UniProtKB/TrEMBL annotation:
Statement: the UniProt record of this protein carries the keyword Hydrolase: yes
InterPro entries, per database record: Metalloprtase-TldD/E_C, TldD/PmbA_sf
Domain Metalloprotease TldD/E C-terminal: 217-437
Name of the featured protein: Predicted Zn-dependent protease or its inactivated homolog
Organism for this UniProt entry: Ectopseudomonas toyotomiensis
Gene Ontology MF annotations: metallopeptidase activity
Domain of life where this protein originates: Bacteria
Keyword Hydrolase among UniProt keywords: yes
Record GO biological process: proteolysis
UniProt-listed Pfam families: PmbA_TldD_3rd
Keywords from the named record: Hydrolase, Protease
Length: 439
């Protein structure tokens, strides 16, 4: 029995269990993943994970209770366990108070998408990595395989999503202990595309043998790679949510209040097609949204609870009201021209430990990481010592933004705690006239 058949059988069983004015929703998540760790260019650990989790919510009027349950995929084992949860939730409901902001989507919507890409061969991918990494101290982690998500309700809603993807995060280490970090991710493994990624990292590795350059705190021209920009943008994603904006706690408050703008180069969408996330949430079908249009505030992400509390119209946003498939439009900067356009300044490959130093001003702080280089006259001169940055999103994506790279890079979440994360982000690199380092 495949995952979709399993989900459908669970749904059919539940539909026969509801009584009176009860209703239910069933969220389903499953994966069949391979995880492979590399050290010194060799496979050091490999394993497979197959797991299924469901979240069953039972409703009666304005009362609701939910439970999360791990399943085996064998119906004869799973149906009795699911029945026990129904009985348990049914016993809990009378003890609960009404939820004043409960707004259930009782529409009989349907959304179904299953990827048609060829199955990913983790063993073949690992072999290509080992061959390509010959002579390199490569440390990496490969996660690959299909993921499944489903959602259904007793009111006729049905959503199903299945897609295979891979995410290979790797670092090349120099003899002096410094490293270059890179990522290759997508739905279809392309050996040539991976070779280009590895070659780019190999070229940067050669510069790590040079004496590191120490800079004084100050503002410098800079180029942020897509990976570096992701660290900054991801910190602010929750700020597109209706609840954060209505309560005044969003880092994008000034943008949505009309008191600030970003560069006209900045257009950000929440996409349905082209990302790696279901076209639905537990709130209903997602909608494509223009979050920022040429530097100005656009639409916000609205869940049903925020719609009820603030008198808005829900648009299928997840309960956390953050983008699931964020896409930032690219610009006119070609990748081979980045160093020449930068001239003299910082080439920043990664940032980490990001946090807010002044949330209302969208001021972010953190550290440079791995391969960050000093560039003079369009040529890499030396690696930089680790430094702290502190700058505002309204500045470095505002008047300080000179150009964006032409092709946004697909970035997948690397988290595997509990399960592989889904969703995606597509970002270009950003050329800045100044970026502030503080110490």
């Amino acid at each position: 029995m495949d995952a979709r058949q399993h989900f459908s059988a669970l749904l059919e069983h539940l539909q026969a269990q509801v009584v009176g004015k009860e209703g239910f929703t069933l969220a389903y998540g499953a994966e069949v993943s391979s995880f492979i760790r590399f050290n010194q260019g060799q496979v050091r650990q490999a394993g497979d994970v197959q797991q299924i989790y469901v979240i069953l919510s039972l409703y009666q009027g304005q009362r609701h209770a939910e439970s999360k349950l791990a399943l085996s995929g064998v119906l004869d084992e799973d149906l009795p366990r699911l029945q026990q949860i129904v009985l348990r939730l049914r016993g809990v409901l009378p003890t609960l108070s009404d939820d004043p902001y409960l707004r259930l989507n009782r529409e009989a919507w349907r959304s179904e998408l299953a990827g048609e890409a060829a199955p990913l061969d983790s063993a073949a991918m690992a072999q290509q990595i080992v061959v390509a990494a010959a002579g390199l101290d490569l440390v990496g982690f490969l996660a690959v395989g299909p993921q499944y998500q489903g959602f259904a309700s007793s009111w006729g809603a049905f959503g199903w999503y299945a897609a295979s993807s891979f995410n290979f995060e790797f670092s090349l280490f120099h003899d002096n202990g410094q490293a270059v970090k890179s990522t290759y991710a997508g739905e279809q493994w392309d050996a040539q595309a991976f070779a280009r990624k590895l070659d780019g990292a190999r070229q940067q590795l050669a510069f790590l043998g040079r004496p590191a350059k120490a800079l004084q705190p100050g503002a410098y021209r800079a180029y942020l790679t897509p990976a570096a920009l992701e660290e900054l943008v991801s910190l602010c994603c929750w700020g597109f949510g209706a609840q954060a904006l209505a309560s005044g706690g969003s880092p994008l408050q000034r943008l949505f209040n009309g008191k600030a703008e970003l560069s006209p180069l900045v257009t950000i969408d929440e996409r349905i097609e082209g990302g790696l996330a279901p076209a639905f949430t537990s709130e209903g079908p997602r909608q494509p949204l223009r979050l920022i249009s040429q530097g100005r505030a656009g639409e916000r992400l609205v869940s049903s609870r925020s719609a009820a509390e603030y008198g808005l119209i829900a648009n299928g946003a997840c309960s956390g009201e953050y983008p699931l498939s964020l896409h930032m439009r690219g610009g006119e900067l070609d990748e081979p021209d980045v160093l020449q356009r930068l001239g003299t300044g910082l080439y920043i490959g990664n940032l980490w430990y990001g946090n807010f130093s002044d949330l209302p001003a969208a001021r972010l702080t953190g550290m440079t990481r791995f391969a960050t280089f000093w560039v003079e006259d369009g040529q890499i001169q030396a690696p930089l010592n680790t430094m702290r940055f502190d700058d505002s999103l309204f500045d470095f994506l505002g008047p300080q933004l000179e150009a964006l790279s032409r092709e946004p890079e697909l970035l997948l979440p690397g988290g595997t705690y509990g399960a592989r994360q889904s969703g995606s982000m597509a970002l270009p690199g950003a050329l800045l006239s100044r970026f502030t380092l503080t110490l």
